[in-house]
Amino acid sequence: MTNPEQDKPEPGPDASVDDIHADIAATRNELGQTVEALTAKLDVKAQAKARVDDTKELLVDKAHTVQAKGTEVGARVVDAATDDEGSVRLVVPVGASALVVVIVGVLVWRRRK
């Protein structure tokens, strides 16, 4: 990876003072950019903060996705549990009762062991 400015030769012995000053300014600029790049690579605290910020952003996006899916699933459950008039279908209380009976049965069975 060569920089086009690096391919530029240094001013020769017959160069003017302005050419030499321009070369010095360009060299200082390149050196400053190199130091900034190295400092950024070595700044562990800044890298950790950037990674934390990226992770936060990812988690917020995931939370919004989960929230949207939860709302969608909730609407489906309500639609499935109610009839066209909004009354609870008979299947839901029977299913809930059966679930309670199964849970109580499992708890009693585990205590007897």
UniProtKB/TrEMBL annotation:
Entry keyword Transmembrane helix: yes
Positions of transmembrane segments: 90-109
Keywords: Membrane, Transmembrane, Transmembrane helix
UniProt key word Membrane: yes
Pfam families: DUF3618
InterPro entries: DUF3618
Name under which the protein is recorded: DUF3618 domain-containing protein
Organism: Mycolicibacterium hodleri
Lineage: Bacteria, Bacillati, Actinomycetota, Actinomycetes, Mycobacteriales
